[in-house]
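Consider the tokenized backbone below.
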């Protein structure tokens, strides 16, 4: 996976209209299979060189330099409320294009491994479960059964909602400012 994989941005309109199917990029995360609509995917890159940013929520891994552009990187596992992704040999960053209605923004999501592109018919998609899910119900666009296994379809616009992430970041920064100093910081501050 040392080379970039470019997702084709040409919408499969004829296929979708004829069969009711959409193409989805599937990926593994925490032992489960997830999928995102391929039209949101710009490219897939190897994990590496993520610059951490202080005082960000735990699910913001940092930023990367992608051909001169600063792209924020979200740990999808942590965003779903689980532990941060352990970086391994197959870990990669999927570059997703999201829009707030005014401007398009590229955001990287960290996943355990990318699997394949699948065509999932609209008739094969069930509504998200109302209970028992380990992630927020509004993050799930639906559930699809593919080859005997369930695939969780991610509503990427909700997961990467810029306004909600900004509110969380502001709340975390305010909470950090109210925390008492770590042991030894008072003495160091008094000596300065």
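A designed sequence for it:
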């Amino acid at each position: 996976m040392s080379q970039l994989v470019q997702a084709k941005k040409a919408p499969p309109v004829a296929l979708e209209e004829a069969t009711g199917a959409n193409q989805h990029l599937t990926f593994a995360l925490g032992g489960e299979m997830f999928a995102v609509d391929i039209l949101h995917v710009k490219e897939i890159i190897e994990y590496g060189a993520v610059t951490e940013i202080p005082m960000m929520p735990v699910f913001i891994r940092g930023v990367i330099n992608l051909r001169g552009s600063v792209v924020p990187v979200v740990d999808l596992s942590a965003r779903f409320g689980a532990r941060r992704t352990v970086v391994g040999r197959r870990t990669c960053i999927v570059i997703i294009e999201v829009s707030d209605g005014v401007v398009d923004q590229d955001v990287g999501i960290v996943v355990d491994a990318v699997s394949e592109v699948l065509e999932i018919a609209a008739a094969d998609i069930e509504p998200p479960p109302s209970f028992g899910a380990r992630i927020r119900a509004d993050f799930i666009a639906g559930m699809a059964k593919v080859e005997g296994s369930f695939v969780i379809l991610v509503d990427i616009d909700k997961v990467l909602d810029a306004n909600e992430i900004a509110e969380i970041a502001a709340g975390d920064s305010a909470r950090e400012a109210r925390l008492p100093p770590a042991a030894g910081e008072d003495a160091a501050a008094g000596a300065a």
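DSSP finds five helices and twelve strands in the chain.
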